[in-house]
Amino acid sequence: MPSLVKDRRRLNRPVLVGAVLAAWVLIWIPTRGLDTLGLSPADLTPLHHWLNDVNDTVGANRNSSPFFLYFVNEIRAAVDSFVTFLQDLIAQPSYGRPVPVLGWLGVVAVVAYLSWAFAGWKPAVLAAAGFVFFGLQGLWEESMDTLALTLGAVVISLLIGIPLGIWAGLSDRFHRLVTPVLDFMQTMPTFVYLAPLTLLFLIGPASATIATLIYAMPPAIRLTAHGIRSVPRSAVEATESLGATGWQKLTGVLLPLSKRTIVLGVNQTIMAALSMVTIAALIDAPGLGKTVIKALQTLDVGTAFNAGLAIVVMAVVLDRVTTAAGDRARRTGRPSRFRRPLLAVFAVAAGVCCYLSYTYFWAAEFPDDVSIGSDLSKGADAVARWAQEDLSTATEALKNAVTYALLNPLEALLVQSPWWLVGAVAVLLAVLLGGVRAAITTAVCVALLIGAGLWQDSMTTLAMTIVATVMVMLLGVLFGVWMGRNRLADRIVRPVLDAGQTMPAFVYLVPFLALFSATRFTAIVAAVVFAAPVAIKIVADGVRAIPAATAEAATAAGSSAWQMITKVQLPMARSSLTLAANQGLIYVLSMVVVGGLVGAGALGYDVVAGFSQGQLYGKGLAAGAAIVVLGIMLDRIARASSPSKGSNHP
Amino acid sequence: MTTETVISVRDLWKVFGHKAELVPRSDELKALSRRELIERTGCTAAVREVSFDVAPGEVFVVMGLSGSGKSTLVRCLTRLVEPTAGQVVFEGEDILGAGKRRLRELRRHKFSMVFQNFGLLPYRQVIDNVAYGLEIRGATKTQRLRRAREVIELVGLEGYEHSFPDQLSGGMQQRVGLARALAVDPDVLYFDEPFSALDPLIRRDMQNEVIRLHREVGKTMVFITHDLSEALRLGDRILIMRDGRQVQCGTGDELVGAPADDYVRDFVRDVPRASVLTLRWVMREPRPDDVLDGPELGPDVIVRDAVRTVLAADRPVKVVRDGTLLGVVTAEEILTVVTDVEAAA
């Protein structure tokens, strides 16, 4: 009876996992508080001191070591001059003038013109309106700083990323080499790129741009390679058979036919860059991010809301314009015969606007007297106050329920257990869920966390991550199943989720700061909202992908809706559920860390503090590494436990 | 066949896999079947020891089922796939020895190819697709547009110059592919299953188109197909492949009349024999009691065309070439073929 044996083995796994967890709790009761490896916020381990020393040594040798003189400093200088040039152009007073070269009128005109030329009428109107809105908010200069940094990083990312992508598209060997690196880079939270870079490039716009371009380059490489690889074989062969040179093949077939995918890569690069530029405010990048962070740190909801709104508007404008440009790249067809003359006419008009904004003060500096920024701030403040005062019963109840029922017990279990107990449990779970290889990875990760000297902070962060992931999965299953079963729901909800995914991570903190003030719970809710879209979409796609015949057969057998969901749709979408959990986990982790800004403490706080206080630098660096290790550990366990495709169909 | 040949292929091998070049060199490995070779070495032999000649102006068809290696073979002839071993002599030059630059020259001027999936560039109008080969070899814009218009007219696409490929039907798209191949005025046209993706009716149209073009421009053509009736319609000679090896090479009536083995016999079983076989294949030795003053016919007359004469005659019809009596045909032989009773080989 082979099938029975198989069933028993299957049943065993959850039972064993449950047994391990139960044993953990039992051992926890007597050993609570032993060997917890606690470290107070100001305490340092020898490793942290050593890292501080490294930082000091690097600082001392910055202008003498050849590695810095001829390599690092050169890069920094080149990037810096490029970004400064962009800032001079649109953001900062420059060349002895009280205003930038291009004033608001010029920038709006150029943006509208480019949006129209590449994307069409509607995106152009949206872009112009969005940019005028920055001025009205009283955030023109900050917005332009953010835009200049984003553009700088995007331009460099594309200059490096697209050729690398072409290379990866043409060469199998390079593709195999680069794919795991890109996978790894994309699972990293935005945060962890910052710390090591400051070691090399100091803080400021240059290192912010470098961090941004490293973060934003992978989608450009990946999608360019993907586009080139998916050009139909027949078109390539036809070109080769006509005797095309390699260059003719590239420019005549490969690039034109992958244009749409490459534009999609440009879109993702821009969105990633914007997201990172705002967070790079932590290492002193100018712009909207800085305004938000300052406001978050002083719990000034109104100002944070105003600047956060500007970030959202910029994200929407950049996303819509590049998406529309991508849609246009797909269309074949002759342009209308008015296009050429219109291009010229509008170019002249934009040129005139640029000249006006260069020459006249009214067109250069956005007028103050029409500002609605302070009204927006005050409005947001009022709403926040109302929410905190009048909604407090509801929000407090929710907050307390999650905190006392889920977060505190879990945190107590993780944080107060001896390190060896947690480590043993983690390795055992990895063995049960993933096998020996996952267990080895986990053991190494546990050792590294201890080595980083941040065991307790890591456990606190882990507790928050687990709670948030559980909530993400609840939402994912709830909405995912709903959307998977109901086309109308899918059509309505999906655009909202898509829009949510384009937002830079930390604008999510603002509204929840208003609702829940600065606590761990705020970070958790922000993380849940940040991570839920991706989980929901994956679950919905999984449910939808179930063959219609299977669902029909179940209906014909007389299943109720509930039976259908629990007996057919969820079991069959199991691999999607694991994937959703895995992705959700990574998203949550990156947001929980950002939550260090609003009182979530732990690793995120260590990183932030490391940027601002010299003596905590080493600890911040170690905390960044600990986040990476935590991410790898969770990712490996989740990935290893996901069922292979075959085991779905017994 | 002492006349000059355009393409001469000798012992051509294409093996895919690790250390593939060792396979054709080893007599032991060469003798293995495909499956045995995969088990022994992990290599797949797509083309094995193929040799043939193509004469100028000839339509040479390579036929086989999918996986028989025919598409790989035609790609080896143009080195879109790099052959593992052997010789491909094109107009006296072994193109396997040609350098990159020389190969490009050959592709630009000497041969061009029509593909199963058309391989058109979707973002270019028909006329620019047709002119693409000329553009690649550096023709000026006026030159290439003039030439493109000529061939567009030749394949019957006037009026569609400025359409985009996705606005055309499959048959018309393949006309564009055909025009693109013709535009560079090559000596040889290679067709890789060009009509397999088309509906049967359109396929017939396009076959007629190829026959017409062949009459008008007289190009040498190498045509790959899996469809026997297409092969018989178009081909002056047909090469049948199976598992990478050539099984038989000959004219249509040779294949039907004298299949080399059971595989070919199986293949040609459903062919209407009367419209393929010639009298050569059905005639018999004159017997002493035959009256030999009946009408005369040549040995290359197709059975179908001889039916009326033979049935009308009250005595055996003589099959004669240059005054020599080769054999006789009576109603019995003709009816055997026409009623499709398989001739005992």
TrEMBL record, chain A:
SUPFAM superfamilies: MetI-like. InterPro entries: MetI-like, MetI-like_sf. Residues 143-322, 458-638 form the ABC transmembrane type-1 domain. It holds the Pfam family BPD_transp_1. It is found in: Cell membrane; Membrane. PANTHER family: GLYCINE BETAINE/PROLINE BETAINE TRANSPORT SYSTEM PERMEASE PROTEIN PROW (PTHR47737), GLYCINE BETAINE_PROLINE BETAINE TRANSPORT SYSTEM PERMEASE PROTEIN PROW (PTHR47737:SF1). This is Glycine betaine/proline transport system permease protein.
UniProtKB/TrEMBL annotation, chain B:
One of its GO terms (cellular component) is membrane. The keyword Endoplasmic reticulum does not apply. SMART domains: AAA. GO terms for biological process: glycine betaine transport; response to osmotic stress. InterPro entries: AAA+_ATPase (IPR003593), ABC_osmolyte_uptake_ATP-bind (IPR051921), ABC_transporter-like_ATP-bd (IPR003439), ABC_transporter-like_CS (IPR017871), Gly-betaine_transp_ATP-bd (IPR005892), P-loop_NTPase (IPR027417). One of its GO terms (molecular function) is ATP binding. SUPFAM superfamilies: P-loop containing nucleoside triphosphate hydrolases. Residues 32-268 form the ABC transporter domain. The keyword Nucleotide-binding applies. Keywords: ATP-binding, CBS domain, Nucleotide-binding, Transport. Belongs to the ABC transporter superfamily. This is Glycine betaine/proline transport system ATP-binding protein. It comes from Actinoplanes philippinensis.
